[in-house]
Structure formats: C-alpha cells, structure tokens
Amino acid sequence: MMQLNWLHQTGHASLEMAKLFVRMFALPTYQDARSWPAAQRAIAERCLPVLPGFLFLSSLLSLVIIRIVTVTAQSYGLSEFALEVLVRTLVLELLPLYSAILVALRISLPDRTNHTDIAQAWAGLLASLLFTGLASLLAATLAYLMVYGLSPWGLASYIGAIGKIFTPAMSFIFLLKTLAFSLAVALLPAGLAKANELQAFTRLIALLLLVEVVSLVGNYA
Amino acid sequence: MTVLTDEQVGRRAKFLIGLTALLLVGAIVFILHARGAFESSQRLTLVTDDSEGATVGMSLTFAGFQLGRVTRIRLGEDGNAHIEVDIPQSEAHWLKVSSVFTLERNLLGGTKLKAYSGILEDPLLPDGAVRPLLRGDATADIPKVAGTARELLENLQTLTGSNSPLVRSLEAIEVASQRLASNRGALAVLMGNTQGADQLQEAIGDLQQLIAATNEKVLGLRPSSTNSSTTASASIVGPADAPTSTLESVNKTIQATEATLRKAQESLTKLDAVLDDTKAITRNVRAASQDLELLRYEVEASLRTADELMRDVQRVWPLSQDPEKGLALP
C-alpha cells in the first residue's frame, strides 16, 4: 500500500515537473506574454542577493579540500597528482552538487506558493548553471594559486592537466550532469507542491544523488 | 527587500544571463584550447609489443615538459600496439629523426611516455613518423633478478659441493701447507716427495764437503770443520808436483765452483722466499706455482752446473773420492 502511494506521488510529481518543463521551453507564441519580464525579475531579485554568500562559502569549502589534498599528496610524494585529483573531485563532482543543493535550498524551494511559475523555474535553472560555473572557476583558480602561488610558470602544465582530464566523454557527461542538476533544481518545486519541508528536502537530495550516481557510472564505470 | 525598477531588473538579469553564457562558452573554448584543438598538430606513431599502462590522453613529455598527447591506441596487423600521439606544431621541433621514445612503468604512480633527443642538430621528425617505443618497467626486472639469483645460488652450490674443483684445490693446498710445515719445508713441496728433498739435502752436504776438500788440496787451506773433509784431503796428492797451467785451471775451476756455490746459496735464499710465496698459494695458487716452477728450474740448472763442475774437477785433478758418487737429481 505504501509503495503504491509512493509510486502515485512520484508519478504525479514527475508529471507536474514535465508540464513545467514543456511550458518553460515552449515557443514564445504559447507562452504567457508576461513571463519574460517576470523571469527577469525573478533572476535579478532572487539570484543576485545569494551570490556573494555562495561564493564565500564555496571558496571556503574549496580551500579546505585543496589544502587537505595538497598536504596529503605532498606527504606521499605525489604532488604532481594533487592538481588532477583536485580538479576531478572539486570541479567535476563536488561543486556542481553543492551549487545545486544551495540553489535549491535558497532559491527554488523556499517560495513554493508559486511553484508552477515559469519565472522561478528559469531563475533556478540559470542560478544553478551560473553558480556551478563560478564555483568551478574559483576552485580551479584557488587550486592553482595554492599549488603554484602567483607564478605564471605552472600555467602551461596546469592547462595541459585540465585538458587531459576533460576528455570529450568526460566533458560531455559533465555538461549533461550540470544541466540535469539545474533542471532538477528548477523543476523540483512543481513536483513538491503537496510535500512538507522535510519531504521536499529529502526528495531533492535523492534526485540530485541519483543524477550524481548516474554521472559517476558514466565517467568511471 | 527593496523593489527594483524594471530597468534595474532588466540590467541585472541581462548581466547574470550574459555571465552564465560567457562562462559556458568560455569553459568550452578553454577545454578545447587545453586539449589542443586550435593548434595544427603532427602525428607520431609509436610501436611497442606491450602498451600496458598507456592510456588515451596521456602526455608525451620531453625533459619533463608536455610535447603531445596520446590520441589513440590500437593493435596493429603486426601484433604490436600502435600508440598514436598528436604533437602540436609549436612543440614538434624538439623531436628529431634520432629521437628515442620510452614508456616507463613505475611501481607507484602513473606510466610515463618520454621522448629523448640526443642530437638537437638532427633533422626534424617528419609528420606521420613511425618509431619503436622502448619499454622500461620497474617491475619487469624482478623475475629476471630472481632467475639470476637462483642461477647464482646453483653455481655457488656446485662450487662448494664435496667433489667440486674448488674443494679439491683447497685440499691440495692443505697437503702442500702440511708439507711446508714439516721439517723439510718448501723442499718437500718442490720435490713432491720426501725422498727427493732428502737427496737434495745430501747433495748439498756432499757439495760442501767437496768444496772444503778442494780448498784444502788446491790452496792448502785447512778448514776447521768436519773430520770427513780432513780425511778426504789427506788422501789427495799435494799440488807441488803439478804443472803451473794445471794449477791455474784448477784455480779457475775453484773460482767457478765458488760462483756456483754462491748461486746455490742464492737459490737457497730464494727457497726461503719460496716459503713466503708458497704461503700465498691460498691467495694466488697459479702465480705461486709458476714461481715455484721457475725456481725449480733454477735449482736444477744450478745443480747441473755444480755436477758438471764436479766432473771437471775430477777430470782435471784426481780426487780420492768415489767418482761414481755424483749428485742425484730428482
């Protein structure tokens, strides 16, 4: 009985999310004429205030992880692999997940009264993409600075290492994963209209982890 | 929250959207650049019998700097692995026709693909070149080392076995050193048996007697030594009747005999040295035995000279001693 109820709920939520997705990407002719200014307002009013705090937190998280990885790698005499490990863990895995969770908690989920609002969905989608990109850029820069300092002479080998990590398959999966995270964050409120706070959070985490696991399987399996 | 005007909202929203698009496009361009998509490159194919550890995307380094990147690894028709490397034109000038390429596997850490250009004046490596790839494997030597160690142990076992040449040599050296320690000393070693050594000692004694007798007869000197020489000289006819020429020749003969004796003495001194040499046998058996051989020849030669001289003396001057009693040579 419980399983049936869960299935019903999940099916309903998926349907609501699909409806929102279709409305989001429908041709402008079928869209409400007011949706673009509303989306602009949502983006401007909801993303910008969150951005500084997000950047501060993500750089703090990155710095801690960079420090742990470089010190550990150094103690084993494997410094040359530290940057690769950092780019793989931070840029490819941790920061997209972290950005998606933060955007969902700060932008998408709090205001579920207008949960089917296209404007809010766009704000969530854009915020997730933007925050992931900024956090990754910041982490990559911090990792370089922590390892090489302000010297420009490590740049060539660092760029080479990044090029080595981002194989076409890896880049494609990374792009797909980031898009999937952003869509999940944008559409999830539509599927959580009847859920309470705890249920909403649990489902958000479950959905994001599902995407993460699928991407990990794609990358490393 | 302050309410923003439409203009402010539009500006901020456009800024955020623009920033997102810029990040996305920038990331794509940066990755393409990092992967060398905007550089014209040349192809190099490295052929090896085992490509284990080589991966697509791994870099080919020269002096620790990345030159190119592996783009494809395939199994060729010849059963060898063909590793295709893309090298940007800007870096390709480091590779010469004489360059050597290695694939190094380490115990810890990744496999490394390296290029070495010894002669930088050589012509450039052409596009599409196929070169052999040398493999250096830290772990590949372990079975080889184990095999060599086993071989070494077997050799050692053969060497130290109860019937091995080394053990037999050591036994022979032991016998020789026992003889050295006996009262006949190095002579026993030289002669190979005790009788020979005894005969030699007797011969030397006889020679001394003979010289004493000769001295007494020819020069009238009377040695203060043994009775036997006194009795021997008593039976010799005095030199007064002999012609002068004979006396001179006898003098010469005696001088020659003295020289020979000195030689024999020298040989004996050398024999003492032989004792030291023979002790060194354990360190250098061959060299020592060569020395002994030489000495043996010298002693033999001296003895023969002495023998001849004795015969000369006997022929020139009639001695009362039994002419048949010569020196017995071993």
How would you sum up this structure, described in words?
The complex is a heterodimer of chains A (221) and B (330). Chain A has 221 residues and is mostly helical. Chain A has helices at 2-24, 35-47, 51-75, 79-108, 118-148, 155-165, 168-191, 197-220. Chain A has 8 helices and no strands. The model of chain A has no long low-confidence stretch (mean pLDDT 86). With 330 residues, chain B is of the alpha/beta class. Chain B has 2 domains: 41-139, no CATH class; 182-316, no CATH class. A 7-stranded mixed barrel of chain B has the order 1-4-3-2-6-5-7. The chains are: A mainly alpha (221), B alpha/beta (330). Chain A binds chain B through residues 37, 39-41, 43-45, 47-49, 78, 80-81, 126, 129-130, 133-134, 136-137, 156-157, 159-160, 162-164, 166-167, 171, and chain B through 1, 4, 6, 8-10, 12-14, 16-17, 19-20, 23-24, 27, 30-31, 33-36, 56-59, 65-66, 69, 108-110.
